[in-house]
């Protein structure tokens, strides 16, 4: 049955890919985005678009009777969250609480929330299961964890069917939907900017981590696989329950390995310089996603790092082609 859904943040990277997948699957999609970091032309064809703040718009919009909300709208820069925490407590926690209240007021039954591996902080286990202690090392992760806690209590008290998906490192692109941040902080798009000549070199943040080559290790997951988990989460959400699932491939790649994969894909030498560590960065973040596989039937299909990078590279080149023409 097609569902009538609100996608907050549907003009952003992960939100737009998910909105596109939902439209492809035949659902009725309304994107709400204030365009603070998203792009109006990233809203997929076939989705309605309401420009505005997720908390504000939901107060009236949800009165139309929706089956669920996928809540992507958020501030998501770790560095910025340390310098301007208020922006994250208000922009993430307060906005989400107001959205939860609007859902409750209008009887919206389902919620899928974008949580993050940053809720775990610096874990001493790898791979990380959902049962690992949550001790975020940055304000961004702390705000997402606070929202997860709030969702759990609303689900139990008010019968909301809720799922939090904890993303590891999302990368790649889905057709014309990909990563286009004005302030780019993520490793793969930065490295690809070196390949296009927009940037002279990539800075490696720390080579003194307790890993094989001394650089930090992350679990990179293709954005299409990530989006597909949201569709499964919608199907599996149950009234009164809040489920939490990690989404990653379960394989770690070091910063140096990522740069090497980008060299292979682009054929560019990609100069790299070693600098100091970035504040708040854990050494190793790799997901145990067994729970998503077992309970949601999720199976990531684009797990090869080179394929992930190749999709991001194709997207980068397409966009440059479009911008030049
Ligand atoms: N990183 C780096 N140079 C950069 C950007 C990132 O060495 O210009 C490293 C960063 O320290 C981390 C990894 O690459 O270990 C992935 O960082 P990203 O910001 O992409 O994702 P995060 O893991 O912070 O969510």
TrEMBL record:
Catalysis: reaction(s): UDP-alpha-D-glucose = UDP-alpha-D-galactose
Domain of life assignment: Bacteria
Annotated NCBIfam families: galE (TIGR01179)
Keyword Iron attached: no
SUBUNIT field: Homodimer.
Enzyme class: isomerase
GO molecular function: UDP-glucose 4-epimerase activity
Any single biological process term in GO: galactose catabolic process via UDP-galactose, Leloir pathway
Domain NAD-dependent epimerase/dehydratase: 6-248
Keywords (A to Z) from UniProt: Carbohydrate metabolism, Isomerase, NAD
Entries under PANTHER family matching the protein: UDP-ARABINOSE 4-EPIMERASE 1, UDP-GLUCOSE 4-EPIMERASE
EC number: 5.1.3.2
Cofactor(s) essential for the protein: NAD(+)
Gene3D superfamilies registered for this protein in UniProt: NAD(P)-binding Rossmann-like Domain, UDP-galactose 4-epimerase, domain 1
Protein family (similarity comment): Belongs to the NAD(P)-dependent epimerase/dehydratase family.
Pfam families: Epimerase
Pathway(s) where this gene product acts: Carbohydrate metabolism; galactose metabolism
Protein name: UDP-glucose 4-epimerase
């Amino acid at each position: 049955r097609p569902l009538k859904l609100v996608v907050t943040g549907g003009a952003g990277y992960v939100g737009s890919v998910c909105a596109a997948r939902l439209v492809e699957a035949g659902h009725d999609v309304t994107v709400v985005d204030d365009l603070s970091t998203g792009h109006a032309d990233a809203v997929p064809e076939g989705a309605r678009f309401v420009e505005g703040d997720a908390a504000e718009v939901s107060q009236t919009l949800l009165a139309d009777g929706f089956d669920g909300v996928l809540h992507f709208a958020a501030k998501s820069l770790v560095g910025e969250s340390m310098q301007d925490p208020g922006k994250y407590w208000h922009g993430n926690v307060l906005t989400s609480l107001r959205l939860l209240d609007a859902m409750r007021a209008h009887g919206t039954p389902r919620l899928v929330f974008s949580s993050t591996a940053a809720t775990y902080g610096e874990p001493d286990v790898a791979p990380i299961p959902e049962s690992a202690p949550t001790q975020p090392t940055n304000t961004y992760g702390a705000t997402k964890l606070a929202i997860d806690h709030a969702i759990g209590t609303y689900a139990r008290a008010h019968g909301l069917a809720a799922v939090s998906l904890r993303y590891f490192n999302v990368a790649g692109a889905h057709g014309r939907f990909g990563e286009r941040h004005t302030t780019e902080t993520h490793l793969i798009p930065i490295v690809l900017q070196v390949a296009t000549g927009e940037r002279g070199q990539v800075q490696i943040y720390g080579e003194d981590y307790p890993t094989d080559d001394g650089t930090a290790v992350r679990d990179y997951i293709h954005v299409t696989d990530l989006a597909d988990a949201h569709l499964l989460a919608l199907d599996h959400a149950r009234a009164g329950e809040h489920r939490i699932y990690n989404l990653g491939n379960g394989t770690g790649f070091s910063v140096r390995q990522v740069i090497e994969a980008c060299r292979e894909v682009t054929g560019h030498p990609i100069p790299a310089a070693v600098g100091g560590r970035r504040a708040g960065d854990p050494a190793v973040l790799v997901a145990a996603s067994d729970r998503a596989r077992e309970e949601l039937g999720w199976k990531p299909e684009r797990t090869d790092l080179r394929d992930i990078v190749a999709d991001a590279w194709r997207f980068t080149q397409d966009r440059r082609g479009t911008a030049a023409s």
